[in-house]
Every structure is written in structure tokens, then in C-alpha cells.
Design goal:
Number of helices: 10
Catalytic activity: a 2,3-saturated acyl-CoA + A = a 2,3-dehydroacyl-CoA + AH2
Pfam family, one: Acyl-CoA_dh_N
CATH class of the largest domain: Mainly Alpha
Organism: Vulcanibacillus modesticaldus
Distance between the termini: 24 Å
Order of helices and strands: HHHHHEEEEEEEEHEEHHHH
CATH topology of the largest domain: Butyryl-CoA Dehydrogenase, subunit A, domain 3
Low-confidence stretches: none
Family: Belongs to the acyl-CoA dehydrogenase family.
Strand content: 15-25%
Radius of gyration: 21 Å
Bound molecules: acetoacetyl-coenzyme A, flavin-adenine dinucleotide
CATH architecture of the largest domain: Up-down Bundle
Mean pLDDT: 98
Keywords: FAD, Flavoprotein, Oxidoreductase
Amino acid sequence: MNFHLTEEQEMLRKMVREFAENEVVPTAGDRDEKEYFDHSIFEQMAELGITGIPWPEKYGGAGANFMSYVIAVEELSRVDASIGVTLSAHVSLGSWPIYKFGTEEQKQKYLRPLAEGKKIGAFALTENGAGSDAGSLKTRAVKDGDDYLLEGNKIFITNGEVADIYIVFASTDSTKKHKGISAFIVEKGMPGFSFGKKEKKLGIRASTTVELRFDQVRVPKENLLGQEGEGFKIAMMTLDGGRNGIAAQAVGIAQGALDEALNYAKERVQFGKPIAKQQAIQFKLADMASKVEAARLLTYQAAWLEDNGLPYGKQSAMAKLMAGDIAMEVTTDAVQIFGGYGYTRDYPVERMMRDAKITQIYEGTNEIQRIVIANYLLKE
Ligand code: CAA
Ligand code: FAD
């Protein structure tokens, strides 16, 4: 067993950390406050080659692996979870299904520009009546000659209106329930495809979360991903890996909060000495650091399994469950260590605490992760 990262992975971490500190940190508070997505940050990520980290070079990727990808998401999320989820939704959810299930033509047409960061990806599964119960979705795709006509609404879609390429799940045969669901690659600008409500959120406010509307959108049959009826399986398999991207986001948020709290505790003087000299604060920091490390190990283990062609769905769900809960606990402790200042927007820990909450909710709530983990346990 080897717990060391490779030299390339250490270099990648250093590069992404420098980028995050220099280019992301300066505007993180403002983007959170005013709730806007900054396209130029995504463009810089493309220039650094991190928009297609795990994909082969022949598809425009960096030819690295999922361990490198989770390191990048972690480092971005350490300073700004909105940027972390932008990358995670783009790679794990918008690109992975094309890499895994796409034809060669679909990969060249869609995966390449996604990997190169010329286009942004998104994943549209959730609907008003189908959140945790994703198999009950109502969006329809009806065959019309060589095309499908897509009709319905999706809600809460990350990268919403800023994306260009969407993996959309719709029913092609409602009599078959989840076995009648199919996956489609939908492009921004297809007639009848528009955007609805933009959510105003508690956290990750610099990431967009938008409703998608499909009004008789004509999707050519070449844009069917996989086979008709394979959509639910594609969605579930995509989420198996995607959940580890969210685990990495949660680890990054927690590490960021720990770093902030540690620095502050060494500087803040009360009762004539830094609060870090109080054992109560030291114990809190020790617990925080231990939890972050445990969450990181689970997350890296799931990435390692995927990189080595081994089953990773259970570990990925475990990583997301643990890392999400730990991010919430550690950020709450960080605010406590900052005292009243932590509650204000003068310091980033309150943003980190607000951002952490979503990691327990999206890509399947943590209650759903327990169902997924239990399903794996019972099958084993
Ligand atoms: N891989 C392959 N196949 C799978 C699978 C997996 N991981 N999980 C389930 N399946 C298959 C099952 O084998 C079964 O196949 P058969 O019918 O052929 O036997 C079929 O799918 C149905 O399985 P279940 O009966 O277990 O399905 P269910 O309806 O009970 O739902 C669930 C299971 C795990 C709760 C699922 O609905 C789920 O994951 N819900 C949460 C939805 C979710 O995570 N949404 C995230 C949206 S994306 C997002 O949020 C983005 C973001 O954060 C940025
Ligand atoms: P519900 O399913 O209504 O759940 C409500 C509560 O009931 C939760 O606590 C849940 O855990 C619990 N519950 C439900 N069923 C069970 C059960 N069987 N057992 C125990 N407890 C249960 N979706 C996408 O498709 N693409 C995206 O890009 C995307 N991005 C998102 C970004 C944000 C900021 C948000 C808020 C959501 C996003 N989502 C996205 C949707 C997200 O995946 C769903 O919100 C999530 O899966 C939960 O669904 P729901 O909100 O309908 O909650």
C-alpha cells in the first residue's frame, strides 16, 4: 500500500493551489455576495488544462487520472466551493457519460471541446417531482422520424445557463418506468430549449443553479447517449463517480476552514495569550484535522479504485457521506474558533459553512448515500 502522491500529482496540487490563491481568492467574497459566475476563471482553468484532467489526450484531455482530478477539485474548493462544483459538474457529470457511453463521433464532437474547456458541461436529472426518486422523472422524449421531441422541465441544474452541452434524462417509454429512461446530449441553442428560474441560494452562490425548459426540442437520434432505456443506468453510474467529486469538494471546504481557523487561533489574543494556547481550542483543532484527513483518505481511496479499474460506487458514496458531514462539522467549528468575527463576512469561514451544507444534499442527499451503501452491502 502506498499513500504517497506521485511527483506529477504533487506538482498539479501546487499549480492548482497557486492558481486558486492568486486568481480565485481575490474575487471569492464578491462573487458570493453578488451571486455571479465568472467565465474568465473557467477560461483560465482551461488554459491550465484542468477542465479535462482525466480524459485521454486524443479527446483533448490532460491524460491524467481521477486521483489528479479529485486533487484539483479539492484545491479549488479549499478557497471557493463554487469553483470546485463548477469543475466537478463539468467533468464528472457533463463529460464522464460521454467518455463512458459516447460513440467515437460523440466523443470528438462533444467530449473534446468539453475537455479543452471551450464548452461547459451540465447534467440534468432532477425535476420538481423527481429529486431523490430520480426514476420517477416525467420529461418525455418522443420519437419523430429520425429525431426525438423533448418535452419537460429540469430544476436545480448546476452550470445551468452558462453550460453549452447538457446530458438530459427523459423517458422514451413511460410504461417501463426507470427501464424506459434514455439519456440525450442536448446543446444550448436548440430551438425550444430555454432557461427558467435561477435559484438564489444559501451557499455556492457563485455557481449557477437554473431550471431548464424543453418545449418540443428536436434532438437528432445521433444525440442519444447509449441505447434507448439505458438512461437510468447511465445516470446511476455517472453519479457513482460524481459523488466522489463532491466528496473532494467537501474535503477542500473543510481543509480551507481548518487552515483559516489554525492561523486565526495563533493570532487572536484573549486573556493575555493566543487562543491557540487554550487546550479547548487545541482539542477542537486536533479533532478537525483528524476528520479532514479521514475524509480525504476515503475520497482518495475511491479515486484510486476507479483509476485501477476496480468497483468504486460504494466507496464513493461512503466518501461523500463522510466528507459532507465532516465539512459541515469542521466549518461550524471554524466559525466557533473565530468567535463573533467568524459570524461576519469579514472572514471567509461563514461562507465556507454556508457552502458546506450543499455537500450533504446534492448528488443524492446523505440519506440517499446510506441507501446506496446499504444496497451495496446487502448485495455483497
Ligand atoms: N450502477 C448501475 N446500475 C444501477 C446502479 C448503479 N450504481 N444503481 C442502481 N442501478 C440499477 C439497478 O441495478 C436496477 O436495475 P434493474 O431494474 O435492471 O434491476 C435499477 O438501476 C433501479 O435500481 P433501484 O431499484 O435501486 O432504484 P431506485 O429507484 O430505488 O433508486 C436511488 C435508487 C439510489 C435512490 C436513486 O434513485 C438515486 O440515486 N437517487 C438520488 C438521485 C441523485 O443522486 N440525484 C443527483 C442529481 S445530480 C446533482 O445533484 C448534481 C450536483 O450536485 C452538482
Ligand atoms: P427530496 O427528494 O424531496 O428529499 C427531501 C428530504 O427527504 C431529504 O432530506 C431526503 O434525504 C429525504 N428523503 C427522500 N427520500 C428518502 C428516502 N427514501 N429515505 C430517507 N429519506 C429520504 N440535480 C441535477 O440533476 N443536476 C444538477 O446539476 C444539480 N445541481 C444541484 C445544485 C444545487 C445547488 C441543488 C440544491 C440541487 C442540485 N441538484 C441537481 C438536485 C439535487 O440532486 C437534489 O436536490 C437532491 O438529489 C435531493 O432531491 P430533492 O431536493 O427533490 O429532495
